[in-house]
User: Fold Membrane protease YdiL (CAAX protease family) from Mucilaginibacter pocheonensis.
Amino acid sequence: MDNPEPLNIDYPNAAPVIAKFVYPDWKSLYKLFFMFILYSIVGAMVLVFFWRDAKDWATPTVKSLSNLVLYIITMLLTIRYAIRKSNKQSFSTFNFSFNRIPGWLVPVIIISALALIVGLERISSLIPMPEYVQKIFEKTFTKNVFSLVTAIIAAPILEEILCRGIILKGLLKNYSPRTAILISAIFFGVIHLNPWQALTGFCAGLFLGWIFYKTQSVIPGIIIHATINITASLFLFLPKHQRGLFNLLGMPYYILLCVCATLIFVGGCVIIQKKTLPTTD
Assistant:
């Protein structure tokens, strides 16, 4: 006996089902940020306790390796927490949005990112970093392989997965694109945990968020993020008096660079706007 065909029955008088928000909304980001801080503090306490009894072999390279491990663990725990909340809220398996992108987009976003760096550096100068903070950053980034891996590989991949692949992806389903991108950029700036990186992080986050919205993929953001961090890392290898584009080029050439960078960045955005369309999952 054949199985009966399933019945397709409509219920016109049934009450409408009210859809819940997709994780996250802006309120749930407070708790996510708290979890990020909690994981960071616990990890930092473990490192402080560990290095207290390991001063004999605590070389800068070993410390950089431990900082890399701590950063990866902290970000993975935060990402794991966000994914679990997302799966629970949506009752589905999370998709990381590693969607393929067209080949022409890669050079466009790299050139646009390089142009954006000029503006980000100008913005960062609005809040001068105190000398004692600069020394802390120099001690943290010791110009070895593990510091470079943290800046140009681990941070772009993990932060883009969290801030664009999870947070912005959910926000875009709850709010308008402008609101979602703005909220995700604020979160991206805040997790840098200092005002000197938070401001530039917010500005870069607006561009990164827009790119994710246009491509529905975290891959372009990873490329842009890595390009920015690679350039910033290269400047750290210059003498202190030559760090910064203004100090390196001087006034006439710096103004010319700012004008060219603005035109290039706007041109890149126009190309991306015309050749990409936002898609839905």
Observations:
- The chain has a mean pLDDT of 84.
- Residues 28-92+108-275 form one domain.
